[in-house]
């Protein structure tokens, strides 16, 4: 049995996929997003070692709340970094009747990724930016990986909720939403598109970790402007 590395759990998650969900934040991320509010998930050697059984036991505690739609969401960090562990754990959860969703940034892909996509219920896809250069500026990773992942998602006919964090001065324009509308045409089954407003609540974590926060002068996203931009989303 492969072991995983866990950052934390969240019970009764209501925003990370349909229904009520147990959110499993896996440790480790290859990206370094300028606005990441969980820099403590980055280090692959951080967090705690975890066995599949511990995740299944924890997920089973929420079963009476899941109903038809709820289940487990694997988030991070970047959960696809732990593909082999995910395949094993998604399989174990299936056996007890719990579905799994993957919340990914599309910044990592390996030989296990396709099987993870095949086995999971649906995908939450964080599209950091539709423009490849801007994607690189935000994440320090190439957008090509995201495009490869979208091919796998389409191949397995998986449904997707697209999300994008909107940051003042970076992507808070109508032109960006037009570009996002165009970009998501690459995905066969889009069930929802959510724009999330940038906030700077993670800044203290950077100070504690001694990491420079690149967006320290950027104000949180204005709610009214976010609503205006959200109204322009088409899918
Ligand atoms: S992909 Fe997510 S966890 Fe990783 S750096 Fe970006 S925002 Fe943070």
Q: What's the average pLDDT?
A: 97
What is the spatial order of strands in the main beta sheet? 3-1-2-4-5-6-7-8
Termini, distance in Å? 41 Å
**What is the CATH topology?**
TIM Barrel
Helix content: 25-40%
CATH architecture label: Alpha-Beta Barrel
Q: Number of domains in the coordinates?
A: 1
Top-tier CATH class: Alpha Beta
Bound molecules: iron/sulfur cluster
CATH homologous superfamily assignment: Aldolase class I
Describe the main β-sheet briefly: 8 strands, mixed
Please trace the helix and strand order, writing H or E for each element. Answer: EEEHHEHEHEHHEHEHH
The Rg value, from CA coordinates, equals 17 Å
Strand content: 15-25%
Number of strands: 8
Apparent shape: globular
In DSSP terms, counting alpha (H) and pi (I) runs of 4 or more, how many helices?
9
Low-confidence stretches: none
Structural class: alpha/beta
